Amino acid sequence: MTAEREESDTHRSGCPINLTLEVLGDKWSLIIVRDMMFGNRRHFRELLSQNEEGIASNILADRLRRLVAEGVISREDDPSHKQKAIYSLTEKGIELLPIFAMIGAWGRRWLPVTEALSIRAQLLEEGGPALWEEFMDELRQEHLGIPTKQRPGPGVRERLYAAYQEVAARQPSAQL
Amino acid sequence: MTAEREESDTHRSGCPINLTLEVLGDKWSLIIVRDMMFGNRRHFRELLSQNEEGIASNILADRLRRLVAEGVISREDDPSHKQKAIYSLTEKGIELLPIFAMIGAWGRRWLPVTEALSIRAQLLEEGGPALWEEFMDELRQEHLGIPTKQRPGPGVRERLYAAYQEVAARQPSAQL
DNA sequence: TGAGTCTGATTGCAAATTGCAACTGGTTGC
DNA sequence: GCAACCAGTTGCAATTTGCAATCAGACTCA
């Protein structure tokens, strides 16, 4: 399994849509990035056991390896815990946010989503590019350590999560 | 192989991102929609033999079946040719355009795209939502037969194709 | 009428990927 | 010292993919 393939390798074509699908075109990669981005999961066990869709540990390990190789996320040791790994989004990964916003909007419109799990997508859609930028800045601070303009009040993820909690509380029977 | 699954079926979760991935999360489905949308391919043979990435006929047949079942495209008989099928985008399929625009922008920024094959993505990015709407109107007219506001001059797809041709002509060695 | 072509696929088969459950070797906190 | 926790690995069956060959029913032209 060759790890790095930076430029001209065996690509099906040089089309941006095709190349993106070669990196992210499967049923799990974007799920993992979603959990890191919106759920703030940074460790293997968090990603494994808190995942809504029930990802298997071998698939998770494989996808994390691939995403690191593709430069969408990075992996480093946790200084406080000798065999604990911390996964972080790279800038390349953070900039997937607009794609998530669009995918969320489409899914919300055309697929049988549950209300609780789609409230975040709705807020992201309504917030538009300005909100996306704010969230991406927040992610850059958390994942890349880049200090950005301080904004008052709770962060974007926090607000999204609060909205989710509110809806979920109203519908105790629904899936968490 | 059960065909229809409209509402509550065996979904991994009700998250809009997950549900979208369940429909489109593989390496070929979006490629086919892309060819229909930007390449104006409407028949099996066109999709098969003009495809840039070399899709196999069994995969194409399977994905067309799935996309029809999911309501992203529709299939009807060609009246002029008894065993010829015409595939059309549905409104659900047409509204994938903003996702393509975002994916194209991300791929262009982060992956080793070729200039000729990414010029369309660039124009779509620069044109913004106004251009997307114009293109979607054009697609509604072509695929759904919905008459829309007449606009003067060549259509969006035509303009995108012309730009591609111009770049490709400048670089005869590059992939078509 | 019959040969050749075009149509949307299907078939057979090897290789790769997925999903599931059990397990591993090491670390940490008590 | 020991239970709990950590990031994965391993083995295996089932499914999916990729590839090439093939198919049967229209159409085309002579």
From TrEMBL, chains A, B:
<keyword id="KW-0805">Transcription regulation</keyword>
<dbReference type="InterPro" id="IPR002577">
    <property type="entry name" value="HTH_HxlR"/>
</dbReference>
<keyword id="KW-0238">DNA-binding</keyword>
<keyword id="KW-0804">Transcription</keyword>
<dbReference type="InterPro" id="IPR036388">
    <property type="entry name" value="WH-like_DNA-bd_sf"/>
</dbReference>
<dbReference type="Pfam" id="PF01638">
    <property type="entry name" value="HxlR"/>
</dbReference>
<protein>
    <submittedName>
        <fullName>Transcriptional regulator, HxlR family</fullName>
    </submittedName>
</protein>
<dbReference type="GO" id="GO:0003677">
    <property type="term" value="F:DNA binding"/>
</dbReference>
<dbReference type="InterPro" id="IPR036390">
    <property type="entry name" value="WH_DNA-bd_sf"/>
</dbReference>
<feature type="domain" description="HTH hxlR-type">
    <location>
        <begin position="15"/>
        <end position="115"/>
    </location>
</feature>
